[in-house]
Amino acid sequence: MRHLKKNLDNTNPTPIKKGKKFKFSYQEDRFLKAISKMNFDEAIKQSNWSEEEFIDACEVAEFNHAYQKAIGLSDKQIRFLKIYPNKMANVKQTCKAVLIHRSTYYDWVKKSPVFKQEVHEIREGLYDDVESILKQKVLIEKDTSVLIYFTKTRMKHRGYVERQEHNVNANVKGQMEVKSKYANMSIAELDEIEKDLRKKAGLL
Fold first, then answer.
1. How far apart are CA 52 and CA 7, in angstroms?
2. Confidence (pTM)
3. I want to staple 175 with a disulfide (CB 3.0 to 4.6 A). Which of 53, 54, 163, 171 is the partner?
4. What is the mean pLDDT of the chain?
């Protein structure tokens, strides 16, 4: 469902209307009831829907919110997931924006498999965007060092770690990671660099 989630992240739901209770269509109502009991593919099939129709429905804030509630997310968790990508998947900054302690976030991750998966997909989606930019060299050349910083510090699990081999008596004895020139920067300074990167990449 990851390709679908990436599409949903790019949607801009219309605001929830206050006053009258929103009325879902028959298919929407059927899907919302099904998704609370089964996985996404099964719920789509039972509702006689296509993924494209589901994405269109999510453009309406009332349905999008109802869907997130149906899969077991609280209002606070939904708000966290909405802000998280705009904070470059920075947990500390997102917690601050949502007005929760970081321990609350880790408690959610521990107790809610759904929330944990949503966080994972958003974070991996962000990494996909950065990786795509890097490969296509979309950014201005002078900003390449910032992209390199991001990949080496946030995407080590994908292999972005610069190493320098040392040969002793013609035998490789080990590897030493080369320190980034950003190593001595404060968290605030690094966050500013990330924010600037996101703006230039068109992700803000």
1. 10
2. 0.58
3. 163
4. 77
